[in-house]
Design goal:
The complex is a heterodimer. By secondary structure, chain A is mainly α. Chain A contains 19 helices and two strands. Chain A has helices at about 5-20, 30-55, 85-105, 110-130, 135-145, 145-155, 160-190, 195-200, 205-220, 230-235, 240-265, 265-295, 300-315, 320-355, 370-380, 390-405, 405-430, 450-465, 470-490, and strands spanning about 65-70, 75-80. In chain A, strand 1 and strand 2 (about 75-80) form a beta hairpin. The longest helix of chain A is centred in the C-terminal third of the chain and has 32 residues, at about 320-355. Chain A is globular, with a radius of gyration of 22 Å. The two termini of chain A are about 35 Å apart. By secondary structure, chain B is mainly alpha-helical. Chain B is built from 26 helices and four strands. Chain B has helices at about 1-25, 25-55, 80-105, 110-130, 135-150, 160-190, 195-200, 220-235, 240-245, 250-260, 265-270, 275, 280-305, 310-330, 330-360, 375-390, 395-410, 415-445, 460-485, 490-495, 515-535, 540-545, 550-555, 560-590, 595-610, 615-635, and strands spanning about 55-65, 70-80, 210, 215. In chain B, the strands form two sheets. Chain B has a two-stranded antiparallel ribbon with strand order 1-2. A two-stranded antiparallel sheet of chain B has the order 3-4. In chain B, strand 3 (about 210) and strand 4 (about 215) form a beta hairpin. Classes of the chains: A mainly alpha, B mainly alpha. Chains A and B meet through helix 7, helix 12, helix 14, helix 16 and helix 17 of A and strand 1, helix 5, helix 6, helix 24 and helix 25 of B.
């Protein structure tokens, strides 16, 4: 394979963004701009599908590796994928075009700038998921914040500045420590190449501190309790498309980071800190579920439920069980689809009524039936009904957790009950009941593009619920190898 | 053919759900009813094969989840147990589909309703034909979902929506235990396949697990966790509160889901897991105790209720209690027999009450009925058949199954067995009283409805009566015809074979004659007694109620379970949610975290600002201060 497929995936959206930048028109409805953005991201999606087809799931080796010297003896540009990362790339390239399609209704001003931000972010996210050098990873990881910061700060709601800064401060704080850790690793091992580091291992003496430094960054981005409070604010203020990107892709960087770096590089420390992760995850699941129950703002409710769902993810990762880690990855993919869809669902009614408050609605099922059906489907997926992708992830995680620690699994399973309560209660208050607010009568059902976007998300949600094999098959070997390596390193104390 | 039993209802549901508007109300009604009926015919054929040719099969349809050692398939396991369930489910479902054509004739959302019914049938079939615990769980939650949809079918009714959510969430509490049971099974055996799990059980009977410092026997724990799931689905005491509220749904739904099929899934689960339960005396005793408590509790509540559907709902609850204590005393086959006969007469009673409600134009309070037996002759006589069968009147179906349960409880020969038998007899008496109370208040006495004239009440259309007639045939003959097969000595070896496991063979003794005659006598005597109480001397029950006011209120309010749960769980959850949000997240985390830090920096910079005043003398003063401090430090040192 000489064709640099990964670099193309990273660069293509940026080229689209550049094109948009130089062809900025002052017109309000920039249709060409939208088509260019849509076209590039769609091409990128098909390219990533092609990547998935070429991908060999029978080995845990990194594939499609490209390496170029950037600064001699210091930083190499090195990218590659294995079973763990490839699904995240697919998720990114799948969500982005849908996101661009959805801006029709929500973004009224500075459309081409918005599209540029989205495309650049896609580049950075793909970069995060395939970089095999810590420095490159760090650059992509942090750079991804900037477009998001702008999306919230420029296209956000009334309190956008507060939210944007809160988001930035939180995430930056963790990142600084991670940078220090990466520099330390370079001092210790003389390289930042992930593959070499996997082979050589990192000295036990420093693992704990390094693990904590990485953790501080990932924990904020996940977000884990108690550093989660930026997420509801960010979601509430972000425009719909921004929320979708944030929930579907940005949050997954940290989960990916935990698997790739925390488990891969610092097994001894991971073992030591597993109780910490368990505690925080379980608190996240239970506390935020209760908080979600009482929300009055639809977006905040879904944001809090995201925290709970990511709690399952972190829990599953640190079980170091085949079922747990596979469940976590499936849960992340599933959450990417479902939370994206739920935010879009909120966006649909927001565009019509300009309110996110649950009280505004009620009894809309007979006015907008198509919407109600799809919203129902995603509600069920969010509460983990068997037959949806949400179930497969959650159930595998809990199965893995049960193998490792009874108590944690029992408490985490309680979250499933509260999850059902808050999602169904939300749905009931928004969709069912008597129609009291007569303004709602003017609402119109999903238009063609909305229907298309939500259907695109519904199909994989159901498909992977009934047949998750394509996903599991892709990650199976990489995960089992990761676990073997982990246990081997743990035993040999490196 | 076997697979089409499952697939046909799914196809019916998809056609009616997605293309209902396109093909029209009548077509979707006909298509769903037809496909489910075909599925019912196939099921009967399968049961015939199983009975006559001892047919048995485990069909793998497709792969579902495979992760590490976990292998789960979409499968269809056909043995005696699932064949019986197939017949019960598809038969009642087909009849309910047909009945609904008449019952829902004025409803604007017919295709949606039919689609839900068919989808339910599909999920229930997935449940009973699973060959592993996870597919069972899929069906388990699937039927719960359809029940949620159907209870809340009239989505404009606030009470219906609340009942729907309550049903789902209470079931989730049960499912929580059930899921933990599955996790434990997977933890212990590395598989969730029935055959593999059951084969391993005898090897781990001595294994102990420690949880929170308490030591549990592994087999006990599995059984109890699974039983929590069964309690939720089958509305056993403590997790029963959703079932009476579920009566908010249309009556055909109550007949299908909340009487004949879904609520019996818990019993099915315990019977299916008989190879596990047989090794746990503790679990069996708890199952017996829960079962008999439910049977008794629900019967007492049914005595004083006034809503015709709620009476039957509590009656269902009570009968499910009977089935559980049958499994608890090890008579799994008898439990299945009662499940089988109960499906007929309880569906008959529900559909009959639907016919009454239809006649009274959606009136459900039995105090507002009465004296219409001549106006509704068919409904009346069919309801009488259902009542006779339910109360266990000699030679109708309930007689064979219910009395068998009481007998086997007696024959078990241990303390819980005797208690169960005693409570069983007393509950049978209560059952008879409340059932006849319903009949007398609904059909006899004076006409009490002020809104509708007696001439306006009318008999139901033929499409509703045919299913009733068919069910009544089952209610009369099912017990007599299938007695030998289900609970006879022959059937044990030839019919159930290895689908039910008995560690010790069931007792083949006969209880003393006085014991055999006791229940039927009570049941027969209660008819004139009820007639006297509710027709002849109606002041007597009222006087009794006013004298024992607290007891009456206690029963009328269903032992205050709902109020208790509201105080214990619902309100604290909401308060906790508010507290965690407003206080913990906003005040503590944000207050000390980002907001606190940023306001601190702000304050600090305001202070620092003041420092840079621009006046030379201030700068000079500070310099002087610093210089002298430094000097002092050097000198002292």
């Amino acid at each position: 394979m000489n064709f640099p497929i990964l670099s193309s995936l990273i660069l293509l959206p940026s080229i689209g963004a550049l094109f948009l930048f130089f062809n900025k028109s002052e017109k309000k409805n920039n249709f060409t701009g939208k088509y260019v953005a849509l076209f590039t991201s769609a091409v990128n999606f098909f390219l990533s599908i092609y990547l998935w087809i070429l991908f060999d799931p029978t080995t845990s080796e990194f594939q499609f590796v490209e390496e170029r010297i950037w600064i001699k003896d210091l930083i190499n540009y090195k990218v590659g994928v294995d079973g763990i990362s490839i699904l995240f790339i697919l998720l990114t390239t799948f969500i982005t075009p849908l996101c661009i399609l959805s801006v029709n209704n929500s973004i009224k001003e500075r459309l081409s700038e918005f599209l540029i931000a989205v495309l650049i972010m896609e580049s950075f996210m793909i970069g995060v998921f395939c970089s095999l050098d810590l420095v490159i990873f760090y650059l992509f990881f942090e750079a991804g914040l900037i477009p998001m910061f702008l999306i919230i700060g420029i296209w956000g709601g009334a309190r956008r500045v507060y939210s944007a800064f809160k988001f930035f401060l939180y995430t930056l704080l963790g990142s600084v420590l991670m940078l220090v850790a990466i520099i330390t690793i370079y001092w210790l091992n003389g390289t930042t190449d992930v593959v070499e580091l996997y082979n050589s291992g990192i000295g036990i003496k420093y693992q704990n501190l390094l693990w904590l430094a990485f953790f501080s960054s990932f924990a904020v981005k996940t977000p884990m309790w108690p550093v989660h409070t930026w997420l509801p604010d960010a979601h509430v203020e972000a425009p719909t498309a921004g929320s979708v990107l944030l929930a579907a892709i940005l949050l997954k960087m940290a989960g990916y980071g935990f698997i790739r770096f925390s488990l891969g590089l610092f097994p001894t420390a991971s073992e030591i800190f597993t109780p910490l992760i368990y505690t925080l995850s379980v608190i996240a699941i239970i506390f935020t579920s209760f908080i979600a129950l009482m929300q009055e703002d639809m977006k905040k409710l879904i944001a809090y439920s995201s925290v709970a769902h990511m709690g399952y993810v972190t829990l599953g990762i640190f079980t170091i069980q085949q079922q747990g880690i596979e469940g976590s990855i499936i849960q992340m993919i599933s959450h990417g689809l479902v939370s994206a869809a739920l935010f879009l669902c909120v966006g649909v009614v927001y565009d019509r009524m300009h309110s996110r408050l649950i009280d505004t609605y009620g009894g809309i099922v007979s006015i907008i039936p198509k919407y109600s059906i799809l919203f129902m489907l995603f509600t069920l997926a969010a509460l983990g009904l068997p037959g949806t992708s949400g179930f497969v992830g959650e159930f595998l995680i809990l199965m893995g957790a049960f193998k490792d620690n009874f108590l944690v699994a029992v408490i985490a399973s309680l979250g499933v009950i509260i999850g059902a309560a808050y999602m169904l209660w939300l749905y009931k208050r928004v969709v069912f009941g008597k129609l009291i607010n007569t303004d709602l009568k003017q609402m119109f059902d999903l238009n063609r593009s909305e229907l298309f976007i939500l259907s695109c998300l519904a199909v994989p949600t159901l498909f992977f619920g009934f047949y998750p094999d394509p996903l599991i098959n892709t990650i199976e070997v990489s995960i089992s190898d990761l676990i073997d390596q982990y246990n081997f390193k743990l035993a040999s104390k490196t | 053919m076997e697979i089409s039993i499952i697939v046909l209802p799914l196809i019916a549901s998809i056609i009616s759900g997605f293309f209902g508007k396109l093909i029209g109300d009548r077509s979707s009604e006909i298509i769903t009813s037809l496909l489910v009926s075909i599925s019912a015919i196939f099921s009967v054929l399968v049961l015939y094969e199983v009975v006559v040719n001892q047919y048995q099969e485990n069909i793998i349809i497709a792969k579902w989840i495979s992760s590490g050692s976990l292998e789960v398939n979409w499968s269809m396991k056909i043995d005696s147990l699932s064949a019986v369930m197939l017949v019960v489910v598809t038969l009642v479902s087909a009849l309910v589909h047909i009945y609904s054509i008449g019952y829902m004739s004025h409803d604007p959302h017919k295709p949606r309703f039919m689609a839900y019914l068919s989808l339910f049938t599909f999920a229930m079939l997935m449940l009973v034909t699973a060959d592993n615990f996870i597919q069972l769980f899929f069906g388990w939650e699937g039927v719960g979902l359809c029940s949620y949809f159907l209870i809340g079918f009239w989505f404009k009714k606030e009470s219906a929506n609340k009942a729907a959510i309550k049903a789902f969430v209470v079931n989730r509490v049960g499912d929580f235990g059930f899921a933990l049971g599955i996790f434990l099974i997977f933890y212990l055996f590395g598989t969730v396949n029935y055959t593999e799990v059951f084969a391993e059980i005898p090897n781990i009977t001595d294994k102990n697990l420690v949880f929170l410092g308490i030591t549990f026997n592994a087999v006990d724990l599995i059984c109890l966790l699974l039983f929590i799931g069964a309690m939720g689905k089958s509305a056993q005491i403590l997790l029963h509160t959703w079932l009476p509220d579920a009566m908010e749904g249309p009556t055909p739904v109550s007949a299908l889901i909340h009487a004949a099929t879904m609520v019996t899934a818990g019993v099915f689960l315990v019977v299916r897991c008989s190879p596990i339960y047989e090794y746990s005396d503790l679990a069996l005793n708890i199952v017996t105790i829960v079962g008999m408590s439910t049977a008794f509790f629900a019967a007492t509540v049914a005595l004083v209720q006034n809503d015709i559907k709620k009476i039957i709902a509590y009656s269902t609850c009570s009968q499910l209690g009977y089935m559980f204590f049958a499994t608890g005393v090890g008579a799994y086959n008898v439990a299945m027999f009662h499940l089988f006969t109960h499906a007929f007469f309880k569906a008959l009673l529900f559909l009959g009450s639907g016919s009454v409600i239809h006649a009274f134009k959606d009136e459900q309070n039995i105090n507002n009925m009465g004296g219409v037996w001549k106006k509704l002759p068919y409904t009346y006589s069919l309801m009488i058949i259902g009542t006779l069968a339910l109360t266990g009147f000699p030679f109708l179906s309930g007689f064979y199954s219910k009395d068998a349960i009481i007998e086997f409880a007696y024959l078990r020969g241990n303390t819980t067995g005797y208690y169960a038998a005693g409570i069983g007899i007393f509950t049978a008496f209560l059952t008879s009283i409340y059932s006849w109370r319903l009949i007398f208040k609904t059909f006899h006495g004076e006409y009490n409805n002020k809104e509708i004239k007696i001439d306006e009440t009318h008999e139901s259309p033929i499409v509703m009566l045919i299913p009733l007639v068919l069910l009544s045939i089952g209610a009369i003959f099912a017990g007599f015809l299938f007695k030998e097969l289900f609970i006879g000595y022959e059937g044990l070896n030839n019919f159930w074979r290895d689908s039910i496991f008995f560690l010790k063979p069931l007792s083949t003794d006969h209880p003393p004659l006085w014991f055999l005659l006791l229940t039927p006598t009570l049941v027969i005597l209660s008819i004139p007694l009820a007639y006297y109480l509710f027709i002849k001397n109606r002041n007597l029950p009222e006087r009794f109620a006013s004298i024992n006011k607290p007891l009456y209120q206690f029963l009328l309010n269903k032992w205050y379970f709902d109020e208790l749960y509201d105080v214990l769980f619902v309100k604290p959850s909401k308060k906790l949610g508010l507290f965690l949000w407003k206080f913990f997240d906003l005040k503590i985390i944000d207050g000390f975290g980002p907001d606190g830090i940023s306001s601190m920096i702000k304050k600090f910079s305001v202070k620092a600002n003041k420092f840079q005043s621009g006046y030379i003398y201030q700068y000079a003063f500070v310099m002087l201060l610093g210089f002298s401090a430094l000097l002092t430090f050097l000198i002292v040192k």
